[in-house]
Amino acid sequence: MEERAVAAARTWLARMVEADDIEIVDPLAPDRKVGKVYVYEEPPGWAVSGFYRRDQQDRWHPYLITLDEGLELDRMKAKDSRLTATAGSDARLEVIP
Predict the structure, then answer these.
(1) How many independent structural domains does the chain possess?
(2) Are 34 and 53 in contact (CB under 8 A)?
(3) Whole domain around residue 22: which residue ranges?
(4) pTM higher than the cut 0.90
(5) Is 74 part of any domain?
(6) Contact, 27 vs 94, CB < 8 A?
(7) 10 Å Cβ neighbour count for 40?
(8) CA–CA gap between residue 67 and residue 15 (Å, rounded)
(9) Which is deepest, 2, 4, 36, 74, by most CB within 10 Å?
(10) What was the pLDDT predicted at 84?
(11) 31 inside domain
(12) Looking at residue 63, what is its pLDDT?
């Protein structure tokens, strides 16, 4: 079930970032040099944390995604100023300064 939650989080992350080709560090692809990652049950759903970047020139952006019991996006928090416009039109997204 944890693997399914992480796979769903990857899909939601790509949608919210609006990029299909991003590098992701998450519980299925950890990299301690980038940072710690987690997946844990958060009733009624799941929480998945990790990092992403769009390409080698981009810095790593931390994120936290919470999913409901059907693995639908409940909320996403990310430290990525490029998502500010998206956050203005999607209440599920919070951009961390």
Answers:
(1) 1
(2) no
(3) 2-91
(4) yes
(5) yes
(6) no
(7) 11
(8) 14
(9) 74
(10) 95
(11) yes
(12) 98
- The answer as to whether 24 is a domain residue is yes
Per-residue confidence band for 71, with pLDDT thresholds at 50, 70 and 90:
very high
Burial of residue 9 (number of CB atoms within 10 Å: 0-12, 13-18, 19+)? buried
Render pLDDT for 13-70 as a digit per residue (tens, 0 to 9).
Answer: 999 999 878 999 999 999 999 999 999 999 999 999 999 999 999 999 999 999 999 9
Residue whose tokens read 């019991």 = 69
d(CA 29, CA 40): 15
Instruction: Extract the tokens encoding 8.
Output: 């769903």
Q: Quick one: pLDDT at residue 20?
A: 76
Token digits of residue 79: 């430290």
> CA-to-CA distance for 17 and 49, rounded, in angstroms?
15
Pairwise CA distance, residues 15 & 1, whole Å: 21
Phi then psi dihedrals of residue 15, to 5 deg: -65, -45
Is 97 among the domain residues? no
- The residue written with tokens 């944890």 in the block is 2
How many other CB atoms sit within 10 Å of the CB of residue 66? 17
Segment holding 4, helix H or strand E: helix 2-17
